[in-house]
Amino acid sequence: MALHLNLYHEIQKTKALKRRDPLKISMFILGSIAACFALYYFFQLLNYHGVAEELDKVKTQNDKIAPLAKAAKKREDVLTIRKKSSDALADRIENRFYWAPILEQFLKTVPRNVQITRFNGDVPPDGLRRCTIILDGLAAGTDARKVAEDLRTAIADAFNPKYKGVTSTFRTLEDGIEPVVFDGKPVPTATFSIVVQIPLVDASASATPPPRKRK
Amino acid sequence: MKLGKEEIQKIVLGVLLFFGLVYSYFNLLLGPLVAHTELNRRSINGLQPVIDANKAQIARTKELEAQAPKVQMVVRQVNAMIPEGAPVAWFPTRMAEFFKRQGIDHVTTRLNSESADGRYKAYRKLTWGVDVPKVEFLHFASALAALENEEPLIEINSVQIDASRDEVDTQHILITLNNLVRK
Fold first, then answer.
1. Cα torsion for B62, B68, B70, B75, to the nearest 10°?
2. Of the candidates B61, B153, B157, which has its C-beta nearest A123's C-beta?
3. Would you say the ipTM is above 0.85?
4. Closest partner residue to A98 among B21, B37, B148, by Cβ?
């Protein structure tokens, strides 16, 4: 076996030491970390610029749209007031209480042997929608009180199909002082006062429907 | 391998420098950048609903604007029914002429009260008393029906009919009604 002498071992050792220099290695590691940090920073910077650009766009859009919306709100307020007023006007016109059908119904209901001396009808303009009618009159017949009672029930029956919950009550019912001549015969009389309450829940039901526009 | 005093000093200095750099990186560079990004993102998120609400507002107004001619038509029609001038100057005359056309004379109309109704901003509500001293009931009832059909702005609040003692065929009638006039 030949003897092999390495005369360069000193140089090789120095080179190896140089290669494994901890300072150099740590510098490499630090450099890599710094590069990673720098990369991440640039990534974040790009992200920031993207978001800032988007914010600019959104702000520009908002600046453009905000005055328009403000003007639109003002216009909406004006239009809403007009619309409400218009609706209220239409409601007032369409849901008025009509007296003519009421008078017509009384005309049909009051018999020949009853004379109405006073008719007092009232519908408050605001608040509770209820028509109150007070009828004062004179009933004539062999049983005058029965005639008045028949009138009272006839009034309720006449109005109930059209208006729900109509009440007709006597305020007073008294025998008359003097008899009257009816159909050539003297008959006793009774004076009465009847209160008729007509609830107007559906006011439009009492009104003649307005003519519909044909499309 | 043994480290000399000078090398140890270098390493300590390097480590300190490294920590300083890391601290500066996170607190002076990356930290504010991320905070700004987050702030901007929050601003975008805050502005987006505002923009959406504004867009909805504009759309709503456009919708109302489209309905405006229809709304205006009702108001115009109502306005056309109200003559110019003081109501006391034209309304009693209008009533007298109306009843005259119906064959009822001597009708007097008086202003009872005036009120503002919150529902009709541009109008006033006037309450009038219409006195018909002598009329036959059937004749009056037909005139009343005509009045209700011809004058949509009139709302009759009360009707009082008194049978005349002297003349059985005629009645004394008092109507209370209200109408709308421009402010």
1. 170
2. B157
3. no
4. B148
Structure tokens belonging to residue B87: 């109501």
pLDDT tens-digit series, residues B98-128: 999 999 999 999 999 998 888 887 888 999 9
As a whole number of angstroms, the distance between CA B84 and CA A17 comes to 113
- Mean pLDDT, to the nearest integer, of A25-41? 88
Tell me which residue of B111, B129, B125 sits closest to B183, measured CA to CA.
B125
Residues of B in contact with A104 (CB under 8 A): 141
Quote the mean pLDDT of chain B.
Answer: 90
User: Quick check: B68 and B60 in contact, CB under 8 A?
Assistant: no
What whole-number distance in Å separates Cα of residue A190 and Cα of residue A171?
A: 13
In angstroms, the CA B5 to CA A185 distance is 150
Would strands B123-135 and B171-182 be described as parallel, antiparallel, or unpaired? antiparallel
Q: B133: Cβ–Cβ under 8 A, 6 or more apart, which residues? A: B106, B108, B172
Judge whether A73 is closer than 8 Å to chain B, CB to CB: yes
Number of C-alpha atoms within 13 angstroms, CB side, residue A12? 4
Q: Say whether A85 and B75 touch across the interface (CB within 8 A).
A: yes
CA A30 to chain centre: 71
The shortest CB-CB distance from A45 to any of B33, B61, B153 is to B33
